[in-house]
Amino acid sequence: MFLNVCLFVILIICVITDLKSRKIYNVVIFPGILLAFFYYLISGGIDPFLYSLLSCFVGLLILLIPYFMGGMGAGDVKLLALIGAFKGITFVFFTAIYMGIIGAILSLCVLMFRKGAKQKLKLILYFLYGLKNGIRIQLNLKKDSISGTVPYGLAIAGGVVWNWLKGGI
To answer: What is the chain written as a DSSP string?
Structure first.
């Protein structure tokens, strides 16, 4: 229960800072990870501590490739690692699945509510229709016209809440 409350408070802080400044700060993440390690070491000994350490590493690995490809911020990667340290491998794995679904929905919303989204969607539909009929239609979309940032800390926190609601406590 104590760790769930701590994780919830950390998630609220991270979502607020991610929405406000698009950053998840190390000053929040690293003490949280250390708290989880310390808690498991004191309450259960070396085995729970090592499991928490392994779970942290798994959470880190899940988002490492998207980070290296430039699609994810380092704070998002560390936040998922923190969730692993707090809750374990199974929890962080299912959180990552739910996070991906929520992140996809957020990304679509960002794209759809940008200026000219209706025109871009129409061009994409024409392109797909042309492909279906063997006609190659040029899209002429500029890269910056379809880009947008998503506060992925919100998707990660949503994944945790979804996991909690599904009984993954």
So the answer is: -HHHHHHHHHHHHHHHHHHHHS---HHHHHHHHHHHHHHHHHHH-HHHHHHHHHHHHHHHHHTHHHHHTTSS-HHHHHHHHHHHHHH-HHHHHHHHHHHHHHHHHHHHHHHHTSTTHHHHHHHHHHHHHHHHTT--------GGGS-----HHHHHHHHHHHHHHTT--
